[in-house]
Specification:
This protein is an all-alpha fold and 396 residues long. It contains 13 helices and no strands. It is elongated and about 90 Å long. About 2% of the residues have low confidence.
């Protein structure tokens, strides 16, 4: 099919617009879900906030009262710079922080010894620090090399060793906290996100079926396409959650326990990505039909056979059963429901093909074939027996 209208390059929102949008979205979610449900949805993020805060307080106490560090607040700063969502990324970030500080101390000591204390030295330290950051492939937001170099320039060479000690203590506490205290359950998070997304695909397919049965127009078809596009964009976030889940168990001593769940999450994300693309194709085809583009009959062809609505309804039941299989407590009946929906859709597909074969309008007949093909591809994607994503289904 032709490229979708309105899919050109979008202008990125400004930082202020993104902050405002995020705040409004959070307030709207709090209003619609209520405080109790919102807290359940955000419990993982809140738990991580509490963990990081506790690690910062502990590191400051150790620095101030046990190690007698002159500026104890620098140690919790090391914790903040090190701790991440997963133990593996915390370890990587901790190593980056230590390496950046060592490089900054060495660079500053050498440059000051050669050039002395002056404006030229300061400029050279900043330029060299930024260049080394790029050469060492550190994240763009990691400016520890030039910061450390400037602190050594301002406070003297002896400060460099104190700075290194502060970072080592902070990074050590941050890494230990990430490993030992409330490790986040990203596998469960990713599974629940996939289940929610599958439910939304089910809702969309059901609404399309109801619309085809009870009369639909161009506005309804455009709304279906807009919802399908939104779900496609959300799938990118869901796939990122699946990757985060894989990273979260990378250093777990019980990693083998998660292997099957990880395979399920990864394959389920790919499965929904493909199925969503096909459902979006159906929505796009209906928009083209009702709009009368490319020689299609427009509103005169909007009276589609009810069998197409029935096939979309069976796809909705398939998505719903797929959702139930992602929650980690799947039952044999959930697989039975999925197979029953697929078999029902296949029967309707064969009957619908017999109806469409008599269509005399060539452009309409080609579109009908594309709609049938998209329905068949969705069933193939979510088929637990002969589909390409067998790992997406638990062994109920």
């Amino acid at each position: 099919m032709d490229s979708e209208p309105g899919r050109g390059r979008t202008i990125a929102a400004s930082p202020l617009e993104r902050v405002t949008s995020g705040l409004m979205t959070g307030l709207e979610g709090l209003r619609t879900m209520g405080v109790e449900r919102w807290l359940r949805m955000e419990r993982e993020a809140l738990a991580q906030t509490v963990k990081i805060t506790g690690a910062c307080v502990l590191s400051w106490w150790l620095a101030a009262y046990v190690l007698k560090v002159e500026i104890p607040v620098l140690v919790p700063i090391g914790v903040l710079l090190t701790m991440s969502a997963t133990a593996y990324s915390s370890l990587v970030r901790g190593a980056q922080q230590v390496g950046a500080v060592v490089t900054g101390v060495a660079a500053a000591t050498a440059v000051i010894w050669l050039l002395g204390y002056n404006a030229v030295t300061l400029a050279v330290l900043v330029v060299a620090g930024l260049v080394l950051t790029r050469l060492l492939n550190l994240p763009a937001q990691n400016v520890q090399i030039p910061i450390t170099a400037l602190l050594v320039f301002a406070l003297g060479s002896t400060y460099g060793f104190e700075r290194l000690a502060d970072v080592l203590v902070g990074a050590g506490i941050g890494i230990a906290a990430s490993f030992l205290i409330m490790p986040p359950r990203f596998v469960d998070k990713a599974s629940h996100e996939l289940a929610a997304l599958s439910d939304e695909l089910a809702d969309l397919a059901e609404d399309m079926a109801e619309g085809l049965r009870n009369g639909w127009d161009e506005d309804m078809a455009s709304d279906w396409l807009a919802r399908a596009r939104t779900l496609s964009q959300r799938l990118e976030d869901t796939e990122e959650a699946a990757e985060e889940a894989a990273e979260a168990v990378r250093l777990s001593p019980r990693r083998s326990r998660y292997n099957e769940r990880m395979d399920q999450v990864a394959d389920a994300a790919t499965c929904l990505d493909h199925a969503c693309h096909q459902l979006r194709g159906i929505a796009r085809g209906l928009v083209d039909l009702i709009a009368g583009v490319r020689g299609l009959p427009g509103e005169r062809g909007a009276d589609m056979p009810e069998l197409l609505a029935d096939e979309l309804a069976s796809l909705s039941r398939g998505f719903r059963a797929f959702s139930m299989l992602q929650h980690g407590r799947a039952k044999p009946s959930d697989l039975d429901d999925l197979r029953a929906a697929l078999n029902e859709g296949h029967r309707q597909h064969e009957r619908l093909a017999e109806v469409f074969i008599h269509t005399g309008h060539m452009e309409l007949r080609l579109l009908q074939g594309a709609l049938l093909d998209d329905c068949a591809r969705i069933r193939h994607e979510i088929d637990p027996d002969t589909g390409p994503h067998k790992a997406a289904f638990p062994h109920a």
